[in-house]
Amino acid sequence: MSSSDAPTQPERLSPEAEEQLQRMRFRKALARKKRKEREAAGEIKELNITAMMDMMTILLVFLLKSFASSSAAITASEDVRPPVSSTRASPKDTVAVTITPKNIMVGDKEVVRLVNGVVPPEQLQGRLVVSLDAALKKEVEKLKYIAERNPAAPFSRELSVIGDKKVPYDLLLTVLYTAGQNELENYRFVVLKKEGGD
To answer: What share of the chain is helix, strand, coil (3-state, %, to 5)?
Structure first.
C-alpha cells in the first residue's frame, strides 16, 4: 500500500485556532437564534376574535338605533322653534326646507337671506322664490335619479317644512307655492312632540 492510498489524518489545529473556530460557531448560532426570535415576534400564532365580535356587536346596535330613530334632522338653533303638537306620526326622510326669521334653507344650505322676515323683491317672480326654486329643482332631480335606479326608494313628492312658530303665513304660502312648482305636493310640518302627552 503506497503512501498516497493511505487515509489522511485531519490536521490538528492549534489551541488558538480551535478557540477562534468555537467563537465563530457560537456567533453564528447566536445570530440564528436572534433571527428566529425576531421572526416569531412578528408572527400571529392565533387570532382572538372575541374582542372583534364585541366591537361588531356594539357597531350593529349603534347602527340599528340610529336607523330606528327619527330621520328628520333639525339643526339646533335659536332661530328655529317649531310649534308643539300631540301628533304620533313619525317624520320621514324627505326634502327638508327650514324657515327661520332670518333665512330659508334647503337641507343645511341657506338659499334665501330674509330681510325683516320677508323675501327680498329681487328674489321673487310673482309668488315664486327664484333661489329656492333652483335648490328644490336640484333636490328633486337627485331624488328622481335615485328612484330610477332603486325601486325601494320611490320619489314620494313629499316635503318636510321645519318652520319657526312665528313664521308669517304669507311667507309659508310663498315657500309652499315654490315647492309645488317642483312637484313637491305633499307637505309635512315638523313639530315638537308635547311632553307628558299620551
So the answer is: 40, 15, 40
Handedness of CA 47, 53, 54, 55 (dihedral sign): positive
8 A C-beta contact, residue 172 and residue 100? no
What's the distance, CA 87 to chain centroid? 30
Which residue carries 321673487 as its cell? Answer: 124
Which set of grid coordinates corresponds to residue 86? Answer: 300631540
Neighbouring C-beta atoms of residue 97, cutoff 10 Å: 26
What does residue 159 show for φ and ψ, rounded to 5 degrees?
A: -130, 130
**Of 101, 102, 112, 109, nearest to 75 (Cα)?**
109
Burial class of residue 54 in the structure, from the number of CB atoms within 10 Å of its CB (0-12 exposed, 13-18 middle, 19+ buried):
exposed
- Residue 48's identity, in one-letter code, is N
CA 43, CA 59: separation in Å to the nearest integer?
A: 29
Neighbours of 62 (CB within 10 A): 10
Q: Is 65 exposed, middle or buried (0-12, 13-18, 19+ CB in 10 A)?
A: exposed
pLDDT tens readout for residues 84-132: 555 554 445 677 888 887 888 887 788 888 888 788 888 888 888 888 8
Retrieve residue 94's grid coordinates.
324627505
Q: What is the pLDDT of residues 45-75, one digit of tens each?
A: 677 788 788 888 888 887 776 654 444 555 5
| Beta-carbon count within 10 A of 117 CB | 14
